[in-house]
């Protein structure tokens, strides 16, 4: 039987009891990945800027029967990040898998973007993953095991107009992934990036309802004719975190329905 979009069929017993820290876990892809890892028996450390969203995902994970803690705050706040990793140490004894998922986008002509918006995008999309990776790697390198997944984007691989800050930071995140991977591979730490296309999240549907996205046009532009589901991206994250991907590091994996391969106009 073929797997339908939205279903996660794979099981990775080696992930059971792994300690997984996810930033931006309150909604969208972060929530989907948190639930996916919870179903594998992982212990979750969830960060989100929105307290209510974080608590809601925490409740969903507890209903599954997995262990979880939440920590609310901005990934741009050094004290928040220190407290986040201290909470992980206190509750579970550390972090095995880090998923740098928190991110923001901008949409305006390059000549109009303010330096404030540019720096905010840089701080959240690039500097925060670097700092989280430093904090996680400090213990992973000593332990000789660890997995880091960075959430890049198709717009870190191909350009889009009016997205200079987003495209630039996601492209830089992809390269940062490669640098960390080749530095840390000999210590048993793997680092990869995911580059999703447009995903059918609540945010995307809200943008479509507001007239800011045209989903039929996006589907027509995508060779497989549809948006990805959060569960499809979460399933890929599970694979990359598992022992099945033990030979994969320093890669940017596009989950895009063929988007970045399609050059016909």
Topology diagram in text:
Blueprint: E1 19-22, H1 28-39, E2 43-48, H2 51-64, E3 68-72, H3 78-92, E4 97-100, H4 115-143, E5 146-151, H5 164-184, E6 189-196, H6 202-209, H7 215-221, H8 230-241, E7 252-255
Parallel strand pairs: 1-2, 1-4, 2-3, 4-5, 5-6, 6-7
Helix pairs in contact: 1-2, 1-8, 3-4, 4-5
Structure description:
This protein is an alpha/beta fold. It has a single domain, classed as 3-Layer(aba) Sandwich (Rossmann fold). Helices cover 45% and strands 14% of the residues. The protein is built from 8 helices and 7 strands; from the N terminus they run βαβαβαβαβαβαααβ. Strands 3-2-1-4-5-6-7 form a 7-stranded parallel sheet, sandwiched between helices.
Mean pLDDT: 94
Taking the alpha carbons of the first and last residues, their distance comes to: 35 Å
Structural class: alpha/beta
User: What is the number of strand segments?
Assistant: 7
What sort of overall outline do the alpha carbons produce when their principal axes are compared? Answer: globular
**Unreliable segments of 5+ consecutive residues:** none
Estimated radius of gyration: 18 Å
**CATH topology, what is it called?**
Rossmann fold
Tell me the number of structural domains.
Answer: 1
State the CATH class: Alpha Beta
Order of helices and strands: EHEHEHEHEHEHHHE
Biggest sheet: strands, sense, closure? 7 strands, parallel
CATH architecture call:
3-Layer(aba) Sandwich
- The DSSP helix count reads 8
Please, what is the CATH homologous superfamily? NAD(P)-binding Rossmann-like Domain
What portion of residues belong to β-strands?
Answer: 5-15%
> Which bin fits the share of residues in helices?
40-55%
Strand order, largest beta sheet:
3-2-1-4-5-6-7
């Amino acid at each position: 039987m073929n797997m339908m979009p939205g279903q996660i069929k794979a099981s990775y017993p080696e992930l059971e009891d792994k300690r997984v820290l996810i930033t931006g876990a309150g909604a969208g892809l972060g929530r989907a990945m948190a639930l996916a890892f919870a179903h594998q028996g992982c212990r979750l450390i969830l960060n989100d800027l929105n307290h209510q969203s974080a608590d809601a995902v925490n409740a969903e994970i507890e209903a599954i029967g997995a262990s979880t803690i939440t920590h609310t705050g901005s990934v741009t706040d050094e004290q928040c990040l220190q407290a986040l990793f201290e909470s992980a140490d206190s509750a579970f004894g550390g972090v095995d898998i880090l998923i740098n998922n928190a991110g923001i986008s901008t949409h305006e002509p390059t000549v109009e973007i303010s330096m404030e918006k540019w720096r905010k995008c840089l701080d959240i999309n690039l500097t925060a993953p670097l700092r989280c990776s430093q904090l996680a790697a400090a213990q992973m390198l000593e332990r000789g095991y660890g997995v880091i997944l960075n959430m890049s984007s198709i717009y870190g691989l191909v350009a889009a107009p009016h997205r200079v800050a987003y495209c630039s930071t996601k492209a830089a995140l992809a390269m940062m992934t490669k640098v960390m991977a080749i530095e840390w591979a000999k210590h048993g730490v793997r680092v990869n990036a995911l580059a999703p296309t447009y995903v059918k999240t609540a945010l995307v549907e809200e943008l479509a309802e507001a007239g800011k996205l045209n989903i039929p046009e996006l589907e027509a532009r995508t060779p497989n004719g549809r948006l990805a589901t959060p569960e499809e991206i979460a399933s890929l994250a599970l694979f990359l975190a598992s022992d099945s991907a033990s030979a994969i590091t320093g890669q940017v994996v596009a989950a895009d329905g063929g988007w970045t391969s399609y050059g016909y106009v």
